[in-house]
Design a protein that fits this description.
mainly beta, six-stranded antiparallel beta sheet, Tumor Necrosis Factor Receptor, subunit A, domain 2
Length: about 450
């Protein structure tokens, strides 16, 4: 796992896919030589008892050499361009006496594409030359005496490849060569995870200047924020990341994965944000919660965001008072001691006109005039006019907030009863917030 500039990068597998490696073949290679007495196949065992397959030719004394060595059929798999890596030794012609006219210090590399193996058939004219291979370092007779062999490594590219497979062929024209190993491979951009999106193995285009655009797929419990894209380069490198995925609701990013929120935590929105602890008076028992449930007696209004604490209805108003003269009655009170944790506090005033018997009461809002109104008051006062003389009015003052309608518990109100028998200005204060009635004599 790698992290770069805040991006999580997780690459699986190698950028190289090996199609052939003669050093890993345990049995005989079975390569063909033409003519039979040209190249010699020599197999020796290394210190780990693994076979070392070497092909040698050194007919430097004879002119007009044309010795061919052909590989078995090699499946190209998904390759569009292949790489051929050769490791070999080559004798310095100047170190061999009397061969100045016949000794060479190069050999030729060929290939032939086919959709199936040709068996023993070999037609050199069908093969396409890749390159003439020369050694950077050649060895001499003195090197042989000192048991020093100078190993050369050469890599050649071939492409575009269009058939199902191919053969390699090596042409000796009079050199003293030992072909120690042949490795054939192609490059790919390996499966990778980046920005919470997965990108599959992708083979680059043959044109090294052209990039392959690949669209990623969001990992489990993630969703697209912008279309995730990467571009596969010729050397198997992922380049130019664009877009991203983000963890879905109920999941947070941890080490490049989207992990469910723990109990007691939640995440209400998709994004690269962490899970949050449940707000006050709420809980989540399971994993992956998108919202926390309210405790008993607490509620969340329809428009309350999930980040807001659960709240409850307010307690009743306190310190209910009235002032009265011949034309109007003013009711005043103090806000409740418990607002329920909300700021959207309002008040409703209900009027009842009662007769001699306390249980014989009728609603009287339509008889009276309330200023500014009887319902939805935002200030703790209301003025009442148009009341009748010699009547008893009972006023119920209720505190409300945004979750009052969601509660099933009986609502609590502050109550005051006012008698209009006396016309002089009167002042009275209710000494308690508990529901009660007060009559002015």
């Amino acid at each position: 796992m790698l992290s770069r500039n805040g991006e999580h990068i997780n690459t699986h597998g190698s950028r190289i896919v090996v199609l052939l490696d003669t050093t890993s073949v345990l049995g005989e290679l079975g390569w063909k030589t033409y003519p039979i007495n040209g190249w010699d196949a020599i197999t020796e065992m290394d210190e780990h008892n693994r076979p070392i397959h070497t092909f040698q030719v050194c007919n430097v004394m004879e002119p007009n050499q044309n010795n061919w060595l052909r590989s078995n059929w090699i499946s190209r798999q998904a390759a569009q361009k292949i790489y051929v890596e050769l490791r070999f030794t080559l004798r310095d012609c100047n170190s061999i006496p009397w061969v100045s006219g016949t000794c060479k210090e190069t050999f030729n590399l060929f290939y032939h594409e086919t959709d199936e193996a040709h068996g023993v058939k070999f037609k050199p004219a069908q093969y396409t030359k890749i390159d003439t291979i020369a050694a950077d370092e050649s060895f001499t007779q003195m090197d042989l005496g000192d048991r020093i062999l100078k190993l050369n490594t050469e890599i050649r590219e071939v492409g575009p490849m269009t058939r199902k497979g191919f053969y390699l062929a090596f042409q000796d024209i009079g050199a003293c060569i030992a072909l120690v190993s042949v490795r054939v491979y192609y490059k790919k951009c390996p499966f990778t995870l980046r920005n919470l999106a997965s990108f599959p193995d992708t083979v680059p285009r043959v044109d090294s200047s052209s990039l392959v655009e690949v669209r990623g797929a969001c990992i489990d419990h993630a969703e697209e924020r912008d279309t995730p894209k990467l571009f596969c380069g010729a050397d198997g490198d992922w380049l130019v990341p664009l877009g991203r995925c983000v963890c879905s609701i109920g999941f947070e990013e941890t080490d490049g994965s989207c992990v469910a929120c723990r109990p007691g935590f939640y995440k209400a929105y998709a994004g690269n944000i962490k899970c949050s602890k449940c707000p006050p008076h709420s809980f989540s028992y399971g994993q992956g919660a998108s919202i926390c449930r309210c405790e008993k007696g607490f509620f969340r209004a329809e428009k309350d965001p999930p980040t807001m604490a659960c709240t409850r209805p307010p307690s009743p108003p306190r310190n209910l008072m009235f002032n009265m003269n011949d034309t109007c009655l003013m009711l005043e009170w103090s806000p409740p001691s418990d607002t329920g944790g909300r700021r959207d506090l309002t008040y409703n005033v209900q009027c009842k006109r009662c007769g001699p018997e306390p249980n014989h009461c009728q609603l009287c809002e339509e008889e009276l005039r309330f200023l500014p109104r009887p319902l939805g008051l935002t200030n703790a006062t209301v003025t009442v006019t148009d009341f009748s003389a010699h009547a008893n009015y009972t006023f119920e003052i209720e505190s409300l907030n945004g979750v009052s309608d969601m509660s099933t518990f009986p609502r609590q109100v502050a109550i005051i009863t006012v008698s209009t028998d006396q016309g002089e200005l009167q002042n009275f204060k209710v000494p308690s917030v508990d529901p009660k009635s007060v009559e002015l004599l």
